[in-house]
Write the structure tokens for this entry.
Amino acid sequence: MASDSSVGTLLKLLVIGLLAVALVSTYLTSRRVGPVAALPSLIGVYVTLTLAVGLFVTSLLDPRFQVAFALGLTALGASLYFTGSALIGAFLLVVGLFVLGTKGRELAT
């Protein structure tokens, strides 16, 4: 069984790779179809950057990280919903709004 430090290292490498793929994908999409059509990709970069900040700088359990990540999921869901991926977009939109609602209620008390 893998130790906690090796799992943490693998997770960090995965997030770095995911961020690299998101940046390259956004660049290629914006060059091919324009920056407006690349909006879901740009929001995907925001979500990936938020995940990287949560992993490297703060904690994934930090309420500020969770709210920022949920805002990104909500924005990504809305952009996907309106650009053609309705099922995935609706799912991400519902998940993001649910997390925002629960975190908002938790932080308000």
In short: The chain has a mean pLDDT of 89.
